[in-house]
Design a protein that fits this description.
Layout (H helix, E strand, L loop, with lengths): L1 H13 L2 H15 L23 E3 L14 H5 L5 E7 L2 H6 L9 E9 L8 H5 L5 E3 L14 E2 L1 H8 L3 H8 L18
Antiparallel strand pairs: 1-4, 2-3, 3-5
Amino acid sequence: MSKLKEFLSKAVAMADPSDLVAGASVTIKYFFSHPVTVMYPFEKREFSSCAKGVLALIPDKYGDDLCIGCMQCVKICPVDCLTVEMRKLSKEELLGRKFEEKKKKALIPTFEVDLQRCMLCSLCVEICPTDALEMSQTVTLIMTNREDQVLDRMRMLELGKDTQRYRNRLAAGEIECEAIQCPEPKHKD
C-alpha cells in the first residue's frame, strides 16, 4: 500500500497542469459532439461505392455464369482460395443450351471461394477475360461455422445480383430473367 502511495505522489509531482487541461479539453469537446458509432444492427452505415465486398459470379441473361473455364483466376490467386472444376461440353450439350458468351465451351460444376483465405485483392477480377467475376457490395455476411465460409457457385451467383454491373444490365433490359438455373453436374464414374 505504501508503494502505491509513493508512486501516486511522484506522478502528481511530475504532472504538468497544462497537460491535464489539454486532456480535459479534448474530452469535453467530444462529449458534446455527435457520436461516430452506430447502433448496429438497428442502424447500418452506408458504405462507399468503391468498397470491396466478397467475390461474386456475374450471371448472364439466361441465369448461367459468364465463366468459360480458363482457370486464370485460380492461377493468379496469391492465397489459393479459389476452387474451380470444369467439364467440356459435348456438341449436343452446346446445341441444347443458350449461353450469352460465345466462347463458352465448358460447364463449371464447381466454383468455390474460401472466405477464410481470401484477402479481397481482386486480382481474379482484373484478369478474368469475360468479366465473370466482380467484387460485390456485400460487406457483411453472418456465418456461424467455418464450412459456411466456403461460398459455392450458387451463392456466388446470388451475390452477383448485388453488383453494380448486374443492376446496370437489368435496368438496361439486357437481362431477361431473374431466375438462376444451374444444371446439376454430371460426373462419369
